[in-house]
Write a structure and sequence with these properties.
The chain is an alpha/beta fold and 508 residues long. The chain is built from 20 helices and nine strands. β4 and β5 form a beta hairpin.
Length: 508
Amino acid sequence: MLRHRINLLIIDLVLIALSYFLIISFKGGYIQYLTPTYLYGLSIFASIWIIVSALFKKFFPNNPPQNSVSLHILVINLLIFGIIVISMYGARHLEYSRLVVFGTIALITVLELIVNKLYQLLIQNGNGTYVSPNRKEKILEREEAQLRANQEILIRDISLSAKQLKQDIIKECGELGYEYIDYHADLLDPKNLVISTTTRFNILYQPENYLTGIINLKRVNDIRYVNKFFETVNVKLPAGGKFIGHVETAALRQKRILRKFPPVINWVFFVLDFIIKRILPKFKVTKGLYFFLTRGQNRVFTHAEILGRLYSCGFEVETEGQLNGQYFFNVKKAADPCFPKNPTYGFLVRLPRMGLGGKIIRVYKVRTMHPYAEYLQDYVYKKHDLQEGGKFSNDFRISRLGKIMRALWIDELPMLLNWMRGDLKFVGVRPISEHYFSLYSKEHQERRIKYKPGLVPPYYADLPKTLSEIEASEKAFFDAYEKHPLRTNWRYFWRAIFNIIFKNARSN
């Protein structure tokens, strides 16, 4: 609670300074309003503003009625206005400009209302209802205390009525959500744990070798350490064990925000939400700020990222669907978690690829896929198969910006670092993932690892359309290269350049 108040009071100081400079710029001759007399008056003004705002809990009144925080701000600002007017009357000899003072107050008020609405949006719960941070923290503390107290009886008694359980699940994730869960799991089976939690503690202390299914009713968006949570679920389940959950994906979140607010304003809110929730956590220098502001709650995940996290933690999708504005997943344990130490989350990524002698090399690329998407190759292959050129069709793992960067070859530029390091040569078969490598015939696999991969592959010279044609293209390249290495590289390079320039050959 205190942290949120301090955040907004600091923002308020910035708004005071911003409003003052905007008003004096509008009035003209702003140099005369930067004199010691005016700056002294501004400091008094700011002190009164902050002290009164803090005393009367302007931004977080105790138990405010629905949608009354804005009214509370207006009332407190009128009180401050009265104090400022009285102070000005007592300092008439200083001859402060009324336009500057009153204009600054009016502009601050407008900016405060806007910032308050944005702040509410960023800390609202998943149902779109505003919950004050103080109340939210108390609710979470009470919930965790209750769960800890009931640790010994977390396995639900089978005598619990199906009717009551249905009502409780509907409260958590809606009627359609209940129907999805009920269809895929026997809710009265004592070996199916139905739980509503955001902490792995309540999974960690379940009995060993007992549960066959775990259903979590809380949104994944509110789980602080998502991978650790998924890994703990995996450990508690046997092979084939079922895990059911739900999450608000980025696409569903966008629809909700654009539907919730009036036109124009909804896009302003969405852009700000995108910057804070999608951009800040992607960079090391801003990641700490993101978690400081949000505490990891109400996080935003793309469809590809949440699936990638599940697959990296050893799960495999059985069924999935969008219900009640949420993405529901039903997955089974297919393997142990891979515990990635350095998942590719930032702008520049290092992807594992098959190199010379079957050695795994880390290829530098600009990220064009959503985070954790690299774990979904088997999922995408089974669901969408390959399109012409050996790429996956309908590959939802690629972001909109990623498609543009691929079309302009921007994503390939960092591979020059691998060429300089000697991992790649200039002309050669392209470096591919272990999964893609496994799709080739055994004979071609053995031959392929005898050669170092390259920056300019024979694919762009021959433009094959199917996997078998790609394999034949690479075989022809190897045959020619073994006879005349320099001549082959020269010929394939210029054929590739010709196709890229005149036939618009792209990596897709």
